[in-house]
Design goal:
The complex is a heterodimer of chains A (about 130) and B (about 450).
Chain A (H helix, E strand, L loop, with lengths): L2 H4 L7 H4 L8 E9 L6 H7 L5 H10 L24 H12 E9 L6 E5 L2 E3 L8
Chain B lengths: L2 E5 L4 H15 L3 E5 L6 E6 L7 H9 L4 E11 L2 H12 L3 H4 L4 E8 L5 H9 L17 E8 L9 E10 L2 H8 L14 H10 L7 E4 L6 H8 L3 E6 L2 H5 L6 H7 L6 E6 L13 E6 L10 E3 L28 E3 L2 H15 E14 L15 E10 L3 E10 L7 H19 L7 H4 L1 H7 L5 H7 L1
Parallel strand pairs in B: 5-6, 8-9, 8-11, 9-10, 11-14
Antiparallel strand pairs in B: 1-3, 1-4, 2-3, 4-7, 6-7, 12-13, 14-16, 15-16
Helix pairs in contact in B: 1-7, 7-8
Classes of the chains: A alpha+beta (about 130), B alpha/beta (about 450).
EC number (chain B): 2.1.1.214
GO molecular function (chain B): tRNA (guanine(10)-N2)-methyltransferase activity; tRNA binding
Enzyme class (chain B): transferase
Chain lengths: ~130, ~450
């Protein structure tokens, strides 16, 4: 699953779901892969205002990836004067769309439940005592 | 100038809804001057401020699946003399512009056919336009078509149109490309290519948008949305359907169609215990919930009291921490699942974002009685029907209202009603069977027998 997805996911337990401590899920023993994908400037521009930037920063720091800017980049920072993709946009693209978690665990910061990621697919199913 | 849209004569109730969705997505204002479910020819007019309508027509048709082409309408009438008069009145000023370009004439007859000799005579009757350019059967600069609309078995057509081709749709190429027979990975309930692509059009999938499918299966809908440039992700209760086997997986499907860049990934989850945050991030939600017939309708949890506590294995470790642990699942009411989808959509869609949801209905056509699920924050945009003999399925499309438009009292009442419902079900544990939970499933396996006929037999 691509790193962008982690910004939408929190703990599946109803008791954790709305708590700030449960988001973002913390990657542990994560194995990452980088696959180059087509630049999708329209998507990043569209999705950027909907991202939780602090959660992005937490996840990238925990994964040992390059640090993100302190604030959400402004839309005008995404393109250079001649309309080409800016370095900021390219970096964001590599991080959000090219980088994916292949295996490891996603851990809830509130209840400590671990969700396994195998073959790039995270498993959010809960045993019945947690439903 | 008005335009004629040439539809295919199938999935009739989807055709206008699809065209309207594309027009809305592309910001084109149009009105339907003539439409009938019984014929493949419809007449529209662009009503927007722009004078240039040719490009509007091309934009409208380009991504259509249920229309094949769009034509400038040069004339119309109930018989040939009227048609010719109409063409003269509407377009005689334009003829000189086409006089020296290559051209071709074709005849498109619906519910009838013409022998070749009769076709030639008919085409010659248009000689008054005095086109002197070369006739080109391949790639003509201008392609004129005579459309004849007849009733079944009628001796002569009752409505005629004459048009100049402006644009063709990508229907044929898309259907060949997404044909299930050639797809790397499918399963028993994969949605066919045509209806998947139509659903993606109704969801207004487009470049830059983010679309989610909570019952992804083998990924038919996400694949169709990615075809139109949307970025997609999905989940399913059954991880096996996402993972597939060996070289056959949802990911491999995206690679087959060269849209892997648009696929964020899939995860295993249950919609009633979804890990997606309660935040408005999605441009579209598109789904075909399991009907409980071929695919069982399950959610996480168990009705067995013993399983409400942590289960320990004989070596003292909790069972759910094992690597190959499979959590128990229980049956679920179909109506509740639909309500859950609507609530989820109301919380997850951005303003104007669309939910496309399929649902099965016992009974076909107009006779089927069923209640359209509603949510105060979702506006029903269209309702399309695919009829099978004794049952049908509906594609319901909703748009998320702006927060200001949502009736706050109705929303409170809706939430109150839902919490009462869920408490009623939590109550004393009753033995629930799949049939009790799903009226459609029950009627399906009873063969949709008429209730009155049943009582007569008794």
């Amino acid at each position: 699953m691509k790193l962008l997805t982690l910004n939408f996911l929190t703990c599946a337990r109803k008791t954790c779901k709305s708590l700030p401590a449960a988001f973002p899920l913390h990657p542990r023993e994560a194995e990452l892969e980088q696959v180059e994908t087509d630049m999708n400037a329209a998507l990043i521009k569209n999705i950027l205002p909907r991202l939780e930037w602090d959660a992005m920063k937490t996840v990238t720091t925990e994964l040992g990836l390059p640090n993100l800017p302190a604030e959400t980049p402004a839309p005008e920072d995404l393109a250079t004067a001649d309309g080409e993709p800016s370095q900021t946009l390219k970096d964001l693209h590599v991080l959000l769309m090219d980088t994916a978690v292949v295996s490891g665990k996603l851990v809830c910061g509130n209840c400590g439940h671990e969700y396994a990621v195998k073959e790039g697919i995270a498993n959010f199913l809960l045993p019945s005592h947690m439903v | 100038m008005d335009y004629l849209i040439r539809f295919v004569q199938m999935h009739e109730s989807f055709r206008q809804a699809e065209t309207d969705a594309i027009a809305d997505l592309e910001g084109l204002q149009m009105q339907w001057l003539h439409y009938s479910a019984d014929a493949p020819f419809a007449i529209i007019r662009f009503t927007g401020p722009t004078g240039e309508t040719t490009s509007a027509a091309r934009t409208l048709i380009a991504r259509s699946i249920l229309a094949t082409s769009i034509h400038e309408l040069w004339g119309t009438g109930p018989d040939y003399p009227t048609l010719h008069t109409s063409i003269r009145a509407l377009t005689s000023a334009q003829w000189p512009a086409y006089q020296h370009t290559s051209f071709r004439f074709t005849i498109d007859s619906y519910h009838s056919s013409r022998p070749l000799a009769s076709q030639h005579t008919l085409i010659e009757s248009f000689a008054y336009m005095s086109f002197t350019g070369p006739i080109a059967m391949r790639n003509p600069a201008n392609h004129f078509t005579v459309f004849e609309e007849s009733r079944l078995d009628a001796p002569t057509p009752h409505r005629l149109y004459f048009g100049r081709l402006v644009g063709a749709s990508g229907r044929k190429q898309a259907l060949v490309k997404y044909n299930l027979k050639k797809r790397t990975y499918i399963a028993t309930t994969s949605m066919d290519a045509e209806l998947s692509l139509v659903t993606a059009n109704l969801a207004q999938a487009a470049a830059g948008k983010l679309i989610y499918d909570p019952f992804m299966g083998t990924g038919s809908f996400p694949l169709a949305c990615a075809h139109f440039g949307a970025t997609v992700f999905g989940s399913d209760l059954d991880g096996r359907s996402i993972r597939g086997q060996g070289a056959r997986s949802v990911k491999a499907n995206f690679e087959q169609y060269a849209t892997a860049s648009n696929y964020l990934g899939g995860f295993v989850a249950d919609l009633t215990n979804t890990p997606l945050r309660h935040t408005r991030t999605l441009d579209g939600i598109i789904c075909d919930p399991p009907y409980g017939v071929r695919e069982g309708l399950k959610v996480l949890g168990s009705t067995r009291v013993a399983l409400k506590e942590v289960v320990y294995l004989s070596d003292g470790t909790p069972a759910h921490l094992g690597a190959n642990y499979i959590p128990p699942k229980k049956g679920y009411r179909f109506e509740r699942m639909l309500d859950d989808v609507l609530s989820f959509a109301a919380e997850g869609l951005v303003e104007g974002g669309r939910l496309c949801m399929w649902m099965p209905v016992a009974g076909a056509g107009e006779e089927a009685e069923y209640e359209i699920p509603r949510h105060p924050a979702l506006r029903l945009v269209s309702e399309c029907t695919q009829d099978f003999n004794k049952w049908s399925r509906r594609l319901l499309t909703y748009a998320r209202c702006a927060d200001g438009e949502v009736d706050a009292d109705a929303l409170l009442a809706y939430r109150a009603r839902r919490s009462v419902l869920s408490e009623a079900e939590i109550g004393p544990e009753v033995k629930t069977t799949a049939n009790n939970l799903n009226a459609f499933r029950k009627r399906y396996f009873e063969g949709f027998r008429e209730r009155s006929a049943e009582s007569r037999c008794d």
